[in-house]
Amino acid sequence: MNKLLVSSFGGLVFLLVVLGLCLFVPAGSLAYWQGWLFLAVFGVCVVLITAYLFRYDQGLLTRRVAAGPVAEPSTTQKIIQSIAGIAFLLMFIVPGLDYRFHWSTVPVALVVFAEAMVALGLFSVFLVFRANSYTSATVEVAAEQKVVTTGPYALVRHPMYSGALLMCVFVPIALGSWVGLPFVLPLIVVIVVRLLDEEKLLRKDLAGYDAYTQKVRYHLIPYVW
To answer: Is residue 35 assigned to a domain?
Structure first.
């Protein structure tokens, strides 16, 4: 239990440090208030989610801790996750450079709104965790896993990716950067490729998933795709 607590919260601290370096080193200043605000919002949300999982679903938390390209069982997903990691970091590095060189100006009200959308995206991910205890950080099917059709899964097949997508789209704006928005596109492509590859595995190895796809036709965005 203590090992899980240390690894989960230690991983969060490491992530926040990495994101901080990606923001403030390119920005060349600690006065980058949008960066501090984002780290506060993101950090608080993830701490709350982690604390909930530690209290109510340590099995899921254990599966979530084992993340990253190395943890992926297939070569395809290792490549996808590697590209996703690079694209994710660029979403922070570019806004930091934007702050330093004053490429764009985002109104404070819009920054605050974007922060709210980041929090909403993370809340959506939390709802997925609460509905599906088998939401692993890697693409795999557990022996006892069953198809979940309730909660966010009644709207789209991959609601965790939907929440992550909502968060990522608003990250550059929350960081006060218009220039950073195009760098979200590679991450969107990676998410789409990952979920389509994941669906192949689920159709093959998860009983009842094929029937579920006939009932819930949208992959990522309700009434769109």
So the answer is: yes
Q: Are 46 and 122 in contact (CB under 8 A)?
A: yes
Q: Could you list the residue range(s) of the whole structural domain that residue 147 is in?
A: 2-215
* Range 134-165 burial, b when 16+ CB lie within 10 A, else e: bbbebbbbeeebebbeeebbeebbbbbbbbbb
Crossing angle of helices 2-27 and 58-65, in 10° steps, is 40
Q: What is the CATH number of the domain that holds 91?
A: 1.20.120.1630
Position 141 scores a pLDDT of: 63
Residue 28: inside a domain = yes
pLDDT at 71: 53
| 17-34: b (≥16 Cβ within 10 Å) or e | eebbebbbebbeeeebeb
Q: Structural domain tally of the chain?
A: 1
Secondary structure (DSSP) of 82-127: HHHHHHHHHHHHHHHHHHHHT-----HHHHHHHHHHHHHHHHHHHH
Half-sphere exposure of 141 (CA within 13 A, CB side): 17
Q: Indicate yes or no: pTM above 0.85.
A: yes
The answer as to whether 222 is a domain residue is no
| Domain membership flag for residue 181 | yes
Listed as ranges, residues in the chain with pLDDT below 50 are none
Identity (one letter) of the amino acid at 192?
V
Q: What is the pLDDT of residues 122-169, one digit of tens each?
A: 999 999 999 888 776 555 566 677 888 888 999 999 999 999 999 999
Work out the end-to-end distance of the chain between its first and last CA atoms, rounded to an integer number of angstroms.
Answer: 40
